[in-house]
Amino acid sequence: MKKVLLVVVPFSLLLVGCTSAPEEETSLEIVEVEITLPEKVKEEEKVAVRTLVTQGEEKVEDAKEVQIEIWNVEEGKENSELLDAEHVGDGVYEVKHSFEEKGVYRVQSHVTARDMHVMPTKQLVVGDMSQEEIDAILESEVEEEEHGDSGDSGHHH
């Protein structure tokens, strides 16, 4: 029994010693992305779409890639436009874009920064639309998602 203890006790101490070593700071704060859109947008009006990239209190000036994807909800995401955003300073990345026709649009920011990829989406209404029109478009989008794509990209007529 003493022989077993002579082996087990030092081995246990060795394990404890290894696990209680000081940990390196590995926890990274999450990169946060906030999309800023104008309140009102008219058809064919060129507007700035801005993305603020932060990590904790720090504004991220060194994002690897910031792209803005824009699509008309009625036309579907497969018809989206992907634009490279330009760093304008203070953690802000921007694209200028004009929306050709009235409708409900999705604006999604694709940000790759500090080994993280963040993709928030915001909705934008272009042109004068009633709440009923907006709701009808959004309702048809939900129905498409629920009943639509079964993985077959071909259309049947």
Can you put this structure into words, describing what you see?
The protein is an alpha+beta fold and 157 residues long. The protein has one domain: Sandwich (Immunoglobulin-like), CATH 2.60.40. Strands 1, 2, 3, 6 and 7 form a five-stranded antiparallel β-sheet that branches. Strands 4, 5, 8, 9 and 10 form a five-stranded antiparallel β-sheet that branches. The longest helix is centred in the first third of the chain and has 18 residues. The C terminus is likely disordered.
List its traits.
157 residues, 39% strand, disordered C terminus, 22% helix, five-stranded antiparallel beta sheet, Immunoglobulin-like
Q: What's this entry about, in short?
A:
With 157 residues, the chain is α+β, with helices and mostly antiparallel strands. 22% of the residues lie in helices and 39% in strands.
